[in-house]
Structures are given as structure tokens and as C-alpha cells.
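Example S7 (C-alpha cells).
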């Protein structure tokens, strides 16, 4: 967000505001990106904790940036396919794809984010939106690894930071939600596929047709929260599923006993919601932390499968695998809170 880059110019006003508070604050909790606030916390004489909204596994890649800088590997070259190994989880990522803030196309931005990573390592504590059953290795490793955490800042798993599934919606959505719950109530336990690719990713007509065909070939009822990049809207699935435009009560759907799997882009909130509710995933990640999140659930926790493409036959086969695999369902249940 561009707002991050305004923080240095607002530091003095922020410090004056905090100094005027009564009683004075006992600590400062801020996003891990904004190193400017670390300087303000030191000036004000209060501890600074960082709140990490992403997975510990993805954040570990960010904490590698200072070591890359010491090895003169920053800013990253757009034209090169350098890789970064994330310790404790056996994962290798293409640096320019995941660590995009550090690309040489915007050196000033790389410097800004590097300062944030350095200050994150020097914080008084790291609060991560995850839970130990989901990421035990990286949470333990992050405490003792001198490359990721040279100052031994304590690491706290404070997640999942998600609302209760029973949270009510506004009155303008109640009728729509009632229709969805009625559909779920009429299905067999663990039989429904829920499909959502988040709020940022929009599917084109070709992908949408393949997804619809794959869902129908699977033979399972489904609920699809559809967001498209044009005028096309999937139709003709009234007998086998619900297609919703742009909104769905995701937590209520995932927590319903009829829901058996979740086709997702693997955004971290979606991963937390599905794992904490014991729902296996079908992962189709796109960018940033999503491939790391998908690998965490599919390869490390073995609580789902990853889709290589959105071709209909692959979708149908993946749905059948997840729905019929006792091992996958058992592993997903182990993550349930």
C-alpha cells in the first residue's frame, strides 16, 4: 500500500500523538513492514511488537532479506531466477516471485522494505497470525535460527485471527444467507465443494467454463462464489449447485457439516479458516505467499491436493481424490481447533 511510504513523513505527528496519551501506552503493535515505527517506539521508550498477518512460513522468507542484503544479493534482478531456501519447512521459492518488493525495478522500495525486515528482527516480539498445530516446525525454528531471528525476539502464535462462524451478517444479506444454509442443510455430510478465489482474483470466461465443467463432472454438489473479469456469468448449474456473485458467508459455509472440501487460491485467511475448521483444500495458488501457503497445507500437513491447471478433468479428479481419501480427511481433522 502507498500509505506505508507516507509513514516517515508522519513520524513526528505520530510521536506527538502517542506522547499525549493518558495513561501512556505500554507497548506499540505495528505491521512488520513499517520500520519507521520502530524508531518512534525507541524514541518514546516503549516496546514494539510486530503483528504478522501472513503465515509464519511466508514471513520466514521476508526475514531472509537482511541476509540476502549482506551477501550483496539485493535488490533482486528481475531477469534472474535466483531461488531462496526457507529453513525448517524444506521449501524453495523463486526470489523475484515471492520477494517482489526487493526487485531492482524500484530500488527505493527495496530499501524501504529491507529496513522493515531489519527492524522486525530487532523487535521486542513477533506476533504471528497462525497456530502451533499448523506450523510447528517454522515457529520453533524462528525462535532459534540466527539468520531469521538474530536478536532472539520471542515469537508468539496468536491465531487464527478470524471471527466466529456464527457471526451474523447485515440485514441486506440475511435472505441470501438463508438460501445458502437451506441448500447446505439438504446435502449429505461432507459432500459439498465450496469454491472461492478470494476478492482480488477474478476468473476469465475460459477458466470459469472449465471450473463449472469440472464441478459437474465430479458428481458432488457445490457452492461457487464467482468473481469474473467480464460479463460472463456461469449458468445452468441449478440442479447441482449454487453460483453466488461476489459474496458468500465463507466461514458459515466452511463450518457447515455438509461442506467436504474447499477449492481456494490459498490466501492466508482462507487457509486459516479451512484448516481450523478441519476442511481439506484443493489449492490453486496465484502469487505472493499463496504458493507457500498451498505447500504448507498440501505437502507438509497433507491436508489437501494442489491443482496444476484449471482444466475440468483435473478439477474433477482432484475433487474425487480429496473427497474419497481417508488420509487427507484425517489430516485435515488434526488441524481442527
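Recovered sequence:
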Amino acid at each position: 500500500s502507498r500509505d506505508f511510504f507516507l509513514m516517515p513523513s508522519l513520524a513526528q505527528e505520530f510521536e506527538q500523538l502517542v506522547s499525549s496519551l493518558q495513561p501512556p501506552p505500554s507497548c506499540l503493535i505495528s505491521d512488520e513492514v513499517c520500520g519507521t515505527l520502530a524508531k518512534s517506539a525507541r524514541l518514546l521508550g516503549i516496546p514494539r511488537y510486530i503483528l504478522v498477518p501472513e503465515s509464519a512460513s511466508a514471513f520466514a522468507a521476508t526475514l531472509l532479506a537482511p541476509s540476502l542484503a549482506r551477501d550483496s544479493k539485493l535488490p533482486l534482478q528481475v531477469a534472474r531466477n535466483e531461488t531462496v531456501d526457507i529453513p525448517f519447512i524444506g521449501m524453495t521459492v523463486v526470489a523475484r516471485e515471492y520477494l517482489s518488493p526487493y526487485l531492482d525495478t524500484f530500488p527505493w522500495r527495496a530499501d524501504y522494505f529491507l529496513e522493515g525486515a531489519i527492524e522486525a528482527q530487532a523487535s521486542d516480539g513477533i506476533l504471528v497470525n497462525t497456530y502451533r498445530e499448523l506450523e510447528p516446525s517454522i515457529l520453533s525454528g524462528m525462535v532459534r535460527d540466527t539468520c531469521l531471528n538474530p536478536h532472539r525476539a520471542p515469537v508468539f502464535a496468536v491465531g487464527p485471527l478470524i471471527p466466529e462462524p456464527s457471526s451474523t451478517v447485515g440485514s441486506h444479506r440475511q435472505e441470501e444467507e438463508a438460501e445458502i444454509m437451506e441448500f447446505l442443510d439438504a446435502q449429505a455430510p461432507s459432500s459439498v465443494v465450496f469454491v472461492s478465489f478470494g476478492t482480488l482474483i477474478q476468473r476469465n470466461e475460459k477458466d470459469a467454463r472449465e471450473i463449472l465443467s469440472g464441478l459437474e463432472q465430479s458428481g458432488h454438489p457445490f457452492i461457487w462464489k464467482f468473481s469474473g473479469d467480464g460479463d460472463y456469468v456461469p449458468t445452468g448449474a441449478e440442479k447441482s449447485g449454487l453460483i453466488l456473485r461476489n459474496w458468500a458467508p465463507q466461514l458459515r459455509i466452511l463450518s457447515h457439516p455438509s461442506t467436504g472440501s474447499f477449492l481456494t487460491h490459498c490466501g492466508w485467511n482462507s487457509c486459516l479458516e479451512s484448516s481450523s475448521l478441519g476442511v481439506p483444500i484443493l489449492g490453486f495458488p496465484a502469487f505472493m505467499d499463496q504458493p507457500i501457503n498451498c505447500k504448507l497445507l498440501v505437502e507438509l500437513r497433507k491436508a489437501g491436493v494442489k491443482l496444476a491447471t484449471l482444466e475440468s478433468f483435473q478439477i474433477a479428479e482432484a475433487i474425487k481424490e480429496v473427497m474419497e481419501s481417508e488420509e487427507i480427511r484425517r489430516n485435515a481433522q488434526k488441524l481442527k481447533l
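Notes on this example. The chain has a mean pLDDT of 87.
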